[in-house]
What does this fold into?
Amino acid sequence: MIGVGIGEHFIASDVFALLPVTQRFIILQEGDFAEISKDQIKIFNKDLKPVERPIITSSLSAEVADKSGYRHYMLKEIFTQPRAVADTLEGCLSEGHIVEQSFGMVAGEIFDKTRAVQIVACGTSYHAGLIAGYWLESIAGIPCRVEVASEFRYRKTARQTDTLFVAISQSGETADTLAALGLAKSLNYVGTLGICNVPESTLTREAELVFLTHAGPEIGVASTKAFTTQLTALLLLVTLLSRRTNPNPSTEQKIVGLLESLPGRINLVLELNRQLEQIAQSFAGKHHALYLGRGTMLPVAMEGALKLKEISYIHAEAYPAGELKHGPLALVDDDMPVIAIAPNNQLLEKLKSNLQEVRARNGELYVFADAEVAMESSEGIHVIPLVPVDDTIAPIIYTIPLQLFAYHVAVTKGADVDQPRNLAKSVTVE
Ligand code: G6P
It folds into this structure.
């Protein structure tokens, strides 16, 4: 997009990059070319014909894009999550119910027809999609497929009838996600929904239904508050769909209560910051890490591993804990720490036995565990206790300490947390 200034004009891939210098923008359309100078903006369409595009004024301001006293944008963004989630829920809940129109005026009509869901996204947004896949099947009983956009767009897909296509993107400008959406529009999906954090983005213009997360500008390249607000939005979506398939008012009331409790619960987890800083310092010398989770905690583990590799440059991989014996166990020794996510659910005992396998091979353990599961720190085992939480929202809560952990490891290593090498915030090309 073009940022319109006074005696100066700018080009960037999204609004947030330009907020410190202007609030006025021109959004280029697919195929447009622009030539800018200090005093002039000339725009041509794909046929090289001069065209006029409107100037829009963004409601976002530069103050939302400063560090507010935090050392890095990423830390500020982690700590802003209670507010970001509350802002995302604002206007979406009413007397124990979810307001369907939060997804668009025709949302009800499309949701009534939806029998399956296809989700596409990239990076962190893809991990949010994976968690939504578990929720859709377990809460709404609706089959769901989740795929990275760069794969989806280049393969011949088959779909069940009446499938809703959902594209998740913080920026709304990711080339692969937009191309996947373009493809979906030419196929017979029952509707397209974009979940996005940037109101003026291409995704919000192209998708039929739109849900805006109100996380505010995310500047750190490693996504944090966009992820937790995407999950908030996706849980709203799942609950709305479950209204049709599992019409039990108490399910919706329970989920609404859990959503309303999120800001307070996230605040409690943020209190672990100091403890995580200390643990991270002892970890910063490592070169590899294996993250383990089961169920919804698998995508949470994948997201934790992604955060660590993006900003600290430590090689990290996530595995379903049950797959440990099918390969990764061969890597475990005193140089391969294992980070496990251990909420108090029916898979806990199985996870504990996986962890014993790791200890038996001298693997150091970092366990993010429910405070009630009676796991204690000892030689080679660092336990980070978390306040007990309902399974449904556990993915949101367990993500927070993993973000803080990766952040402190990166800071200890002296890495450029907000702008990691080789990475960009919006990937607008393939
Ligand atoms: C880049 C960013 C990631 C982000 C991904 C998808 O790789 O560095 O943080 O998750 O793009 O971006 P999107 O804006 O589509 O969510």
Q: What stands out?
A: The two ends are 18 Å apart (CA to CA). The chain has a mean pLDDT of 92.
